[in-house]
Every structure is written in C-alpha cells, then in structure tokens.
Design brief:
The chain is α+β, with helices and mostly antiparallel strands. It contains three helices and three strands, in the order E-E-E-H-H-H. A three-stranded antiparallel β-sheet has the order 2-1-3. A hairpin with a 4-residue loop joins strand 1 and strand 2 (10-13).
Length: 81
Amino acid sequence: MRLRWDGRQIVAETSGLRGPGRGAYLCAKMSCWEAARRRRGVGRALRLSAAVIDNDAVAEAVAGMISGSSRRTGPEPAGPA
C-alpha cells in the first residue's frame, strides 16, 4: 500500500494508479503501520514534520484497507458468563 501527501493530508492508495507526489510504502499488515508510526518512518519518508501528521486519522484509513487490523470499530461482543 502506498501513502502520499496531497498537500493537506496523507492519502492511502490501494489501486494500481499512483497519485502525484512523494510516497511511502507499507506492507498489508496493521503491525507494519504501528511500527512505522513508532519509528516516525512515514513522516521521514514523506519529508514531513511530526506535527503535520494526524496519526489517528491515518491509522483509521489504514486499518480499513489492510489485513491484521487490531483496531475495533464497535463494542466488544458479550461472551458466555
């Protein structure tokens, strides 16, 4: 998956088409995103300061597009008592 800066925000691209601008690539696992976020790798690859990147918004977009997502979107289901 390719991430790129469009001038306002980081855009996740999953199609074969590449948008303009500098890009950063991640594998299709949530663990890759978490590691890149901890190391600030996406900001370095895109040549952006950490203050510009909204990690929560990017994490939500990435979680919806890749496998192995550890983020939950709703309440945890009740199990047997």
